[in-house]
Inverse folding.
């Protein structure tokens, strides 16, 4: 009923425009013809009328008004305007559905990844098993899917740049690296009563990291995507648009700050080839630390300009292949996972204390 009423209203409006244009055409031609008669007073009326109809003034006025009349008539007859408007609305709705689907995919993949970490946290078969290998493969597939979803955001949410996704990839990599280290500890525990408590402590640390990252990332991520979608689908005033963009940036700033802090913690505690042991590896790590200190002073310098380059490369080549392969098995050392858990917990404590202070200040 509402659509029929709207259609009738549009048709009535179109007819009104046609009538108004016809009246305007007649009125303008009449006025211009009167002016033309006054400029040719000696000619009889029929000659004046023929002369006016052949004049450029008549052509310009008639064409400029007849064309809109024809277009209005065609729109009335074929309902062109309504079809175009309907097509535009259909495209807008399809785009909204695509944005909604992308947000749902994001929520699903991150929920699946959190659940996957939960399986690792509560795993109790401490030793090598086919089920554990399957779990490791499941994590690899989930990580690939998560990266695909994150990389698709700039194509869907056009206000986001490719560089904006870096912060989310950082959180994803931290979760993946912590999980891989815990799985490796479970695999190598071999039901050893001494190793099992150490692995269980790592599992608890992974639980803290997962909880902290989820608490930091989940709601901020949804707010960023939902507000970005609204920028693309809603008609904001310039002032309101700037306000929404500022809110999005605020969420980004918070996530970026915490991601940078966790990355600095990882770089401070973690070591190259975390599972490898031996004199050759230790010597290479010591030179690598000095290489990083040298590189920080000039990021554009070529690596082979490092004063200890010969010793650096020689110590690397001296590491047994077996130690290199062992070192490549995981990215984080167990100590790194534990330290990240401590830092995440400390941040949670800060949040609790800030909330408590806000609550007490309101009571006063």
């Amino acid at each position: 009923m509402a659509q029929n009423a709207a259609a009738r209203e549009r048709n009535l409006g179109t007819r009104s425009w046609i009538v108004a244009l016809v009246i305007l055409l007649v009125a303008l031609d009449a006025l211009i013809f009167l002016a033309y008669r006054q400029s040719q007073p000696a000619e009889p009326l029929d000659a004046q009328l023929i002369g006016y109809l052949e004049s450029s003034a008549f052509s310009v006025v008639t064409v400029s008004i007849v064309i809109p009349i024809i277009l209005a008539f065609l729109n009335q007859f074929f309902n062109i305007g309504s079809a175009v408007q309907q097509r535009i609305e259909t495209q807008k709705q399809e785009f909204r559905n695509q944005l909604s689907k992308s947000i749902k995919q994001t929520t699903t993949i991150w929920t699946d990844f959190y659940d996957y970490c939960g399986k690792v946290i509560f795993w109790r078969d401490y030793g090598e098993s086919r089920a554990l290998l399957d779990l490791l493969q499941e994590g690899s597939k989930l990580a690939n899917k998560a990266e695909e979803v994150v990389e698709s955001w700039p194509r869907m949410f056009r206000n986001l740049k490719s560089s904006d996704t870096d912060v989310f990839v950082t959180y994803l990599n931290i979760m993946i690296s912590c999980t891989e280290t815990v799985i490796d500890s479970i695999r190598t525990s071999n039901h050893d009563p001494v190793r099992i408590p150490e692995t269980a402590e790592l599992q608890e640390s992974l639980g803290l990291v997962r909880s902290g990252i989820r608490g930091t990332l989940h709601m901020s991520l949804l707010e960023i995507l939902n507000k970005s979608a609204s920028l693309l689908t809603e008609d904001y005033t310039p002032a309101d648009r700037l306000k929404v963009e500022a809110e999005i940036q605020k969420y980004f700033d918070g996530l970026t700050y915490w991601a940078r802090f966790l990355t600095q913690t990882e770089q401070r505690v973690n070591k190259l080839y975390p599972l490898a042991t031996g004199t050759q590896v230790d010597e290479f790590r010591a030179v690598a630390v000095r290489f990083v200190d040298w590189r920080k002073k000039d990021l554009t310098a070529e690596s082979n300009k490092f004063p200890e380059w010969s010793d650096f490369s020689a110590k690397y080549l001296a590491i047994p292949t077996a130690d290199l392969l062992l070192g490549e098995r995981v990215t984080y050392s167990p100590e790194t996972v534990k330290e990240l858990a401590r830092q995440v917990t400390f941040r949670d404590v800060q949040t609790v204390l800030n909330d408590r202070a806000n609550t007490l200040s309101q009571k006063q």
In short: The radius of gyration is 36 Å. Residues 189 and 195 are 5 Å apart (CA to CA).
